[in-house]
Amino acid sequence: MTGFDIHIGYAHMRNPIALAAMAGITDSGFVRKVAMGAGLAILGGYNLDDATNDAATRIKERGRAEFVTPEPIKHLKGELEQLTKMEDPPAIALNVRSTELNPLLEAALLAKEYGAIIEIDAHCRQLEMTDIGVGESLLRDTDRLTSMISRVKKTGVALCVKTRSGVVDDEELAVTIERAGADAIHIDAMKPGAGADHRAIRATRNATDLVVIGNNSVVDFASAKAMFGHGADMVSLARATLENPDVINTVVTQTTMFQERTGWYNAPKHICSGGDDRALAFCCLPVKPCAIHGVLKRYGMTPQEFADLKVELSRGTPLELGDHTCFGTLIWCCKLTKPCFLRNAVFEQIGLSGVEYMKLKKQLSEGILERIRGKTRDH
Ligand SMILES: Cc1cc2nc3c(=O)[nH]c(=O)nc-3n(C[C@H](O)[C@H](O)[C@H](O)COP(=O)(O)O)c2cc1C
Ligand code: SF4
Ligand code: SF4
User: Fold this and answer.
1) What's the pLDDT tens digit per position in 38-62?
2) Cα(221) to centroid of ligand 3, in Å?
């Protein structure tokens, strides 16, 4: 029992670490090599119609790996068959591209039959693909993307959309994808130059209830934790697995240990350190000028209303205790990972473990967001 509770539609992930798609590389054999311990393995990208297979052939001719399959659905069935019959496989997703809708619907029905997820590739920026209107070009054609998501979702498949941040407005894109009916968004938070743009993960977390898979430059537990702290439910790795086939197992082990030690593997960073709105649960009594005021303003809430809400939602819980803390109760106390002897002395005194404390803060966070988002979101 690992204590993770992550679902994309009907698919359950045993841990929050995923293998991301790499065309021409990420097939069932590669999953067996690098991702048998993952929570999710995303195969592909597969090309489902003649136009995308022709584009992939042209990409291959210039030396870049691609999957070209004359009978894609038959091929995918074989891949799913192989992986799902293995002992204790990860959840599986199929990253797919198609100019036509019908092959997407066929792939969705196949995925559903095997309990797998469909991931629409709105990410690929190879010109051969964007020229025919698939991959990243979908991000700029919201009508087509919306219609594709809603038609594919009608099959009942668990549905994720792979995007790239910084191409269009990240927040608007996430809301569009959620409203169209997707279950998850997988964001390549690429930053020009190098590294990951965590602001895109935070913007998506704050704007939607989608399951968020954060991607780009995750290579170890520290980079995974940075994604989690900005709102990712899961993280995915692509290039790092080529260099180190054991990297997913290592990150899974360390994330699992962190979850066992803290009780909230993707707890947000404090708001003043760039964390998402879930971190209101860790905020102090808002009595001085700091980053919380911008957040409260966004939700049309006064500091007093916020203080009253936190007190109301903590009533009857051990968070009400803690006379000797900065603000007189644990309601206003910091994250467990921030060392504090005053708070830890209270834990000792009242017999509360760090994990229990974080679980109470997680419940408080969910309660706060439910109440304040209800005021501002119209869906
Ligand atoms: C060789 C290669 C092929 C890729 N093919 C795909 C693809 O077919 N579909 C897709 O959504 N992303 C594809 N990606 C993007 C990766 O899934 C991932 O978003 C990107 O590499 C950033 O993550 P990383 O820093 O963990 O590598 C590919 C990446 C590489 C390196
Ligand atoms: S209230 Fe405290 S934790 Fe929250 S943003 Fe301000 S200083 Fe940071
Ligand atoms: S007592 Fe410690 S944990 Fe609580 S608010 Fe003060 S510094 Fe943060």
Assistant:
1) 999 999 999 999 999 999 999 999 9
2) 26
> Do 76 and 53 form a contact (C-beta atoms < 8 A)?
no
Q: What is the pLDDT of residues 132-157, one digit of tens each?
A: 999 999 999 999 999 999 999 999 99
Residue whose CA is closest, atom 4 of ligand 3? 333
How far, in Å, CA of 207 to CA of 231, rounded? 11
Q: How far is the CA of 340 from the centre of ligand 3 (A)?
A: 6
Average pLDDT (212-232) is 98
Tell me the backbone φ, ψ of residue 349, rounded to 5 degrees. -65, -40
Ligand 3 centroid to Cα of residue 362, in Å, is: 17
Q: Token pair 């359950």 is at which residue?
A: 12
Q: How far, CA to CA in Å, does 154 sit from each of 97, 159, 182, 229? A: 18, 10, 10, 33
Residues 6+ apart with CB under 8 A from 223: 196, 217, 235
Q: What's domain 6-262's superfamily in CATH?
A: Aldolase class I (3.20.20.70)
Output the pTM of the full model.
Answer: 0.97
Q: Per this entry, what is the length of the chain? A: 379
Closest Cα partner for 279 from 271, 288, 287, 290?
A: 271
Where does the chain hold its CATH 3.20.20.70 domain(s)?
6-262
Ligand nearest to the CA of 292: 2
User: For 262-277, what is each residue's pLDDT tens digit?
Assistant: 999 999 999 999 999 9
